[in-house]
Specification:
about 65% helix; about 5% strand; 6-stranded mixed beta sheet
């Protein structure tokens, strides 16, 4: 019997080692945590003990119900028959006394069996729990024994897993660095392409904003400001927008770097309007551009050149934007986003 157990134990130990290696290489085990992988080895040992039945299962306790059923089926009818047969032989005194005592003892024995059966009904769970706990202790002790035997063998497997995870971490960090470098290179290239598009008067994302269509039916003052904002976006100032019609502070179109005044006139522009725009541009630290459907006098053109203000003549009925000084011509050639603004 001992030899049989030893041979079964050795086969179970080999099986537990294979199972433990599988658990150690699983994601739920941390090889850098000694407690973690020792728990995995012990779990593998317990599973092997159950599979090989090294510890027999706990015996089931018989409950009082089964005892009572057997009693009522077998013994109780016999006792009744024996008791009823006593008067038949009562002509012999000794026999009558003997059968009388037999009947009394049978009744007492019946009540004892009944009491034992009822007590067993209530005590069976506790007794079964005690047997199960005893078996669990035996399994635990045998698993500890297998753990002590397997731990030295599996130390090398744990070290291999550690080395593999360290190498994976190193490769993961290298991939992250390479991805970060490529992302930065792509962002730099995208920024360069955006700058080139801005120089060509294109949208930063590769789109070209359209120029306004001819307004053959005329346009209001607010509509004229919207058309001028469209011209600025078409020429590269993509965040230009028309301000509110009232309380605009002398600015009709504004962007992050430019302000514009838009006058829908049929006659000449006054020098005061251009001077006011120059003052606002100086206060806001922005560049200025003036749009009008009228005309500019030579004095206004001279002042605008000194103040570095671009002057445009724009008739909504035609799709043409006419430059009226040097800075306006420079914008048409280099868009609203030149690298160097001429002095």
């Amino acid at each position: 019997m001992v030899a049989t157990f030893e041979s079964t134990y050795e086969r179970a130990l080999i099986s537990a080692e294979a199972s433990a290696i599988t658990k150690i290489n699983g994601e739920s085990v941390d090889p850098f945590n000694r407690y973690s992988y020792r728990v995995a080895i012990k779990e593998a040992a317990k599973d092997t003990i159950e599979n090989f039945k090294l510890i027999p299962p706990a015996k089931k306790t018989y409950g009082g119900k089964r005892i009572l059923i057997i009693f009522f089926i077998v013994y109780f009818p016999l006792a009744i028959v024996g008791g009823l047969s006593t008067p038949k032989y009562s002509q012999y005194g000794e026999a009558s006394v003997l059968y009388g005592w037999t009947f009394v003892l049978g009744i007492l024995w019946c009540f004892g069996i009944i009491f034992w059966g009822i007590a067993s009904v209530f005590t069976r769970p506790k007794r079964q729990a005690a047997l199960n706990a005893r078996r669990e202790r035996e399994v635990h002790l045998l698993a500890d024994k297998m753990l002590i035997a397997l731990a030295p063998r599996l130390e090398q497997e744990v070290e291999v897993r550690k080395a593999r995870e360290l190498e994976e971490d190193r490769l993961r960090q290298l991939r992250a660095l390479e991805e970060n470098r490529l992302r930065q290179a792509c962002e730099a290239e995208e920024q360069r392409l955006r700058q080139e598009r801005l120089k060509r008067g294109e949208h930063p994302e590769g789109k070209i904003m359209p120029a306004p269509d001819p307004q053959i039916y005329g346009v209001s003052s607010a509509g004229y400001e919207e058309l001028c904002a469209m011209w600025m976006r078409h020429l590269g100032e993509f965040d230009a927008f028309a301000t509110a019609p009232t309380a605009d502070g002398g600015i009709d179109v504004e962007s992050s770097r430019w302000i514009a005044q838009c006058k829908l006139y049929t006659n000449g522009v006054s020098i005061e309007s251009v001077r006011a725009l120059a003052g606002i541009a100086l206060l806001d630290n922005k560049r200025a551009v003036f749009f009008t459907s009228g005309t500019y006098s030579p004095g206004i053109v001279s002042f605008a050149d000194r103040a570095r203000i671009a002057l445009f003549e724009y008739q909504p009925i035609t799709p043409t934007l006419l430059p009226k000084n040097f800075f306006a011509e420079y914008i048409l050639e280099n868009t609203f986003n030149p690298d160097v603004w001429p002095e």
